[in-house]
Glycosyl transferase, UDP-glucuronosyltransferase (Desulfobacter postgatei 2ac9), 415 residues
Amino acid sequence: MTRPNILILPYMPTLSHTSRPLEIAKLLRADGCNVLFAGFNTNKSKFSFIEKEGFKCLALFEPDPDTLFTNIRNGKMKFVSALTLDQIVKADINLFKKVAPDLILSDGRFSAMISTQIADIPHVAVVNASSTEYRSIPYIPFFEKIFPLWMREHKNFRQFCDKMNLKIEMAVFDNAMNHFKRLSKKYNLKLPVTATNCLAGKDLTLLADIPEYFPVKNQPDNYHYIGPITWKRSVNTPKPRWWPLPETDKPKIYLTMGTTGENNLFSLIYNYLKKSDFITIITTGSQNDQFKTIPGRIYVEDYIDGEAVLKKSDLVICHGGNGTIYQAIGKVTPIIGIPTIPDQDFNMRRVEALGVGIRIPIKTILKKPDILMDKIQTILTNKDYFKKNLYKLQTSLKKYTGADIAADLIQSYLS
């Protein structure tokens, strides 16, 4: 029996979209698959990140991350140009001809559902439930702003408004970002691709969530909850010289802004916390080399085992990324989220709704940095409340094994 060739297409500038398929790749390789990565050819840190795990990584055109995230932060629904989308699709197809994969696994590559249909190659995608057409919670809850009291007090009214809200926001987004519809017609695709479903899989969609955190409605048979997938450091990766942390009664704070954070915000929080009486552990995601370790007060690394740090932390300050949120739930650590893009704001609204953390709008903290201390004290004072809610979600989280379920589903599909 020949070993299947699996080509993985992450959106490499973002750590979560790289680390999730990387964890799946380790298991697929152990099961006898040939696994190859391809992605952003100027992002050397992510190439190294993948190659250290023993995988080859080919250069592949991707949209410029600075332009993409600037568009997203500015609320532009046309987050990528028609020309760029055409280039990405053509880059995919040219790579498929060279590599001849048996299956494509994507995470954050919004051209994959188009290019895999054109090339007639099986396609599996890892995606968050919030980025699918089957999400049951509105992305932009505009009815909540119009009818706040009725939405809170009348369940049936809320359900009706949420349903209408979802229909409207998806229709507006798909029509504004109509490049996908145009390519669907151009290539006569059997499964039409839109801005709303472009991150899903053509054949199999793996939801890296738990339903209690992000529910969906009318879930198709080829959509599967697998639970979150968090990066596990290689056993050969050395621990920081300062680990383990010194024993102290001072509150410990974990600060991580992923790989989509804004440097001015990161610098503001760093300068604020270094004057505090807390112990702060910071991961920069290789975004900034200006932050320095201050022994006994602040410890800085590019990357670290987040779960080990969260286990020792009283709270985490983050950008509202799914990976960090799920790690915090797993270790019952309350969350302060400062979202910088709409996806993260969406995540943090769920965090607040479930009573496991607090959201601080970025405009608020930039104008009034002292609000951070207020929210830290709120969590430290009400830790029992947050932990009670975190334990409920942790119980659900334990039912899912993320990468293991994903690898099993992919192997079953291949066979």
